[in-house]
Write a structure and sequence with these properties.
This protein has about 190 residues and is mainly alpha-helical. It contains eight helices and no strands.
Length: about 190
């Protein structure tokens, strides 16, 4: 159990250290963690994102809490998020002490500017990964070979309806989360 908790802390520590850009930027690290540890499957990540998005709090913290709990119970649900946020706390303390002295330095400004495209790429990769898991049915396509079986039509229709509804009605996001959850139950998406 101690080994699992240490590994859980270490995996999320590395994720927190390198996932620049917020919760969705942690997804590439979760895919790698899935392959390395076997704590969850790639398909579990879509569920993980859905649960984390629909609960209050930062996405990355919610995901690390969920993985920690499913891996090592209540103690894991504490250790996972601690590992994720520990690098940020250390870095923020160091940066706050140093930044005042170097904030006008062109190298520092260029480094911060360079982090923007990296964050964008991580978030885009995460979005593509979630879209692939959610909107495509690769096993059905591989077994049938029919191009139309590649797409998860119910999920695509639901995604389009939610997107259009967001643009037209502009309701609070929780409304769409609840409506999508109900649609998922009714239509077995």
């Amino acid at each position: 159990m101690l080994t699992t908790l240490l590994q859980l802390f270490w995996e999320f520590f590395k994720t927190g250290l390198f996932a620049v850009g917020g919760g969705l930027a942690t997804l590439p690290f979760l895919y790698q963690m899935s392959a390395k540890t076997g704590w969850f499957t790639v398909h579990d990540i879509a569920t993980l994102v859905a649960i984390s998005e629909s609960t209050p709090g930062p996405l990355g913290v919610n995901m690390s809490t969920y993985v920690g709990y499913t891996t090592a119970g209540v103690l894991g649900s504490i250790i996972g998020p601690l590992g994720l946020v520990a690098p940020s706390i250390v870095i923020i303390i160091i940066v706050s002490k140093i930044l005042d002295k170097f904030k006008t330095n062109q190298y520092v400004q260029d480094a911060f500017y360079g982090l923007r495209p990296a964050s964008t790429a991580l978030i885009a990769a995460a979005g593509c990964g979630v879209a692939k898991i959610t909107l495509l049915d690769i096993p059905a396509f591989e077994s049938s070979g029919a191009l139309l079986s590649l797409f998860s039509w119910k999920s695509i229709i639901l995604a389009v309806l939610v997107y259009i509804s967001l643009k037209v009605f502009k309701k609070h996001p929780i409304f769409y989360i609840i409506a999508a959850a109900i649609a998922g139950i009714i239509f077995q998406i």
